[in-house]
UniProtKB/TrEMBL annotation:
It comes from the Bacteria. One of its GO terms (molecular function) is ABC-type phosphonate transporter activity. It is found in: Cell membrane. Pfam families: BPD_transp_1 (PF00528). This is Phosphonate transport system permease protein. The chain crosses the membrane at residues 20-41, 82-104, 130-154, 211-231, 243-264. The keyword Cell membrane applies. PROSITE patterns: ABC_TM1. SUPFAM superfamilies: MetI-like. Residues 78-261 form the ABC transmembrane type-1 domain. It comes from Corynebacterium timonense. It is a multi-pass membrane protein. Keywords: Cell membrane, Membrane, Transmembrane, Transmembrane helix, Transport. One of its GO terms (cellular component) is plasma membrane.
Length: 269
């Protein structure tokens, strides 16, 4: 045997601090490479901020002088935005229940059917909401309908994905007990699984309602109804004093909806 003093000394494992430093260096280096146009990175012209600062300052100055007389014109589009958000959330809430139960392993032992549902949901989630809105506006015309359909698809992808994954990660002894008692999968899902996961559904539905108010304001930029359509109109006319009013209203409404959502979440979840 080799004497202890002659055995090769193994290098010490890097400490957590060294590993963290290496990760930071790697991330910074990769970021620098992606910002280098000569090797195919994006061209980030930071100097343009200095060259065009006066233009930006003028726009900001206009926005700091909101046109309060424009408020009455924003009421209708803002109400439409809220209506789109609520309708999209409610429709997706109804459809998301069976889709989620079909997408989760404990509530759907059929691997083929489960794979089909998950694939469809992944496809729905992979398409950005503005792409949906743009296509739907071209198909059904300008207005609230393409916005509602877009929000419906947007919400379905979120709710089914998050809730089904939560169901997969939890302990489901009650499902095994139901099967042992001779219940069918439909009976088990209706009588045992659904009441157990309903708080998860409620939490995600309220979350999508909050998101819908923000998203619906953006969808109007491509003609999908709501306050965003008015925002794009005023921006195209360089009426930034009106734009600031719209932005302030969106901010207030989003905060109020979030407060309402938190209040409901404490009482329902």
């Amino acid at each position: 045997m080799t004497p202890a003093h002659m055995r090769p000394t193994l290098p010490e494992k890097p400490t957590q601090r060294v590993r963290t430093a290496l990760i930071v260096v790697a991330v910074v280096g990769f970021t620098a490479l992606t910002m280098t146009p000569r090797i195919g990175g994006i061209d980030v012209d930071i100097a343009s901020i200095a060259r065009n600062w006066r233009n930006g300052a003028d726009k900001l100055l206009q926005m700091l002088q909101p046109n309060l007389a424009f408020v009455p014109r924003t009421v209708g589009p803002m109400v439409e935005t809220l209506q789109m958000a609520i309708v999209g959330a409610v429709l997706s809430a109804v459809i998301s229940i069976p889709l989620t139960l079909w997408a989760a392993t404990p509530t759907n032992p059929n691997s083929v059917g489960r794979a089909i549902v998950r694939t469809v949901i992944n496809v729905v989630r992979s398409v950005p909401d503005l792409v949906y809105a743009s296509i739907l506006v071209a198909m059904v015309g300008v207005g609230a309908l393409p916005g509602v359909i877009t929000l419906f698809l947007f919400n379905i992808g979120i709710v089914v994905k998050l809730v089904s994954e939560a169901i997969d990660s939890e302990n489901h002894g009650y499902i095994e007990a139901g099967r042992a008692a001779g219940g069918t999968q439909f009976q088990i899902n209706r009588a045992m699984a659904l009441p157990e996961v309903m708080p998860l559904f409620m939490n995600q539905w309220l979350y999508t309602l909050e998101l819908n108010v923000r998203v619906s304001a953006i969808l109007g930029l491509v003609g999908a109804g709501g306050i965003g359509r008015l925002l794009e109109e005023r921006r195209s006319f360089f009426a930034y004093e009106d734009v600031s009013i719209i932005i302030l209203e969106i901010l207030v409404v989003v905060v109020l909806v979030e407060m309402l959502s938190n209040w409901l979440r404490k009482r329902l979840v």
